[in-house]
């Protein structure tokens, strides 16, 4: 149990300090557990986070004159039959359970709603920090006085499979409560108490909310911190969690919600989380702000020569610098598939006769789309080499399977495979051809030959230290632009024939195919 107050110090509920919004005191503490969405049961006048579905009986309006603003009004919070079993990513409730006569029935109902892997989050007045029923200052509507053990003991008897992630007594400042967070586990898991595990000797918080490839750069920092003895917690967006899910150097991943926090709230959240760790590394802006300005900021509009002078720095070097790693720290970016994912990729590879090239012809925006992907697949097919094309292909709509003599050589997969499986398949490829994408980053330090078609980045920026890589820099005046264009890419120079960005259109299918064929011949000779 985390004790944040001395027990026995009674704090009396006061309408001037409480005012029906106890949840505001822990909104940042509970954010990681409710980030995916869910229910706020007994939300009162203000939900703990606006993306949750607020549920309330509006009883406090009658009792205390407090105006309620729930999304759904219910007569009884212990009966929520409008929601299906396992339909909620989380159920959060603050200072409600003590008002419900049959509190056990309420907990059974709320637990029913939580999906496997989801969280039940309870914030309740502590019987040792708040006047008990009948004492001066007690809330006249309270029907129970609780300690954390009361709830945990009930859960132990009522439900077989859960993990208690947080058990905090919170009594500093205006708090007089305790916080419990339970994760529902799959059948057979049993009951676990990770909250009680000894704290790691050294801990580090690592923040990287950005693209898929950016997450792999953060993985390099995590590997170096782990080697220094830190237990690393990574704060990432949902896509980053997918990429880093099984990284052995990351002890815990916190998924940050997209678009939920405004700028001020984001800073407040980092200020809340940072002091929990011995070392705090925030990588936001290390590349996309400092070296790749977005179209919405002033640096985007600097003259190209000035941009190049200021921004032609290696991305991973800058990421390492933000993490205070010594200059010259080597790259440890790597994708870590599971054994099951590797086995799947091996089976898929076995179905392809002869060598195959994994092709990723798009990236994070239309300015990265390579317009010669179809022609490249045809050239590979002519040479008896299969191509597997992956990624978001919305900017290349007219792609077809390539067949020679009744055999399919050009396979247009797109996003039919989950991202992790597609990345694992890249590790099985005999060669990889890619734009500046997660697939290129996933194999950056792998041995197979690679051709990377650079768009807004230079070789110095991205591929300087990559293994066995031919990095193509476009012979056009605007390359490298060191810019992140928006979806419209209005400031991106276009090729008049293909309509795609001038840099990507300059990389002909024949030139790329020639590099791949030469590399594969060298590989085959070396193997022989």
Can you put this structure into words, describing what you see?
The protein contains 15 helices and 20 strands. It has helices at about 25-35, 60-65, 105-115, 150-160, 210-225, 240-245, 265-275, 305-310, 315-320, 340-350, 375-380, 420-430, 440, 500-505, 510-525; strands at about 1-5, 40, 55, 70-75, 90-95, 115-125, 160-170, 175-185, 190, 205-210, 230-235, 250-255, 280, 355-360, 385-390, 400-405, 405-415, 430-435, 450-455, 470. The longest helix is centred in the last third of the chain and has 19 residues, at about 510-525. The N and C termini lie far apart (about 60 Å). A hairpin with a 2-residue loop joins strand 16 (about 400-405) and strand 17 (about 405-415).
What CATH calls the topology of the largest domain is: Rossmann fold
CATH architecture of the largest domain: 3-Layer(aba) Sandwich
Instruction: Find the count of extended strands (DSSP E, 2+ residues).
Output: 20
- How many individual helices? 15
Shape: elongated
Beta-strand share of residues: 15-25%
The biggest beta sheet, please?
Answer: 9 strands, mixed
Number of domains: 3
- CATH C-level category of the largest domain: Alpha Beta
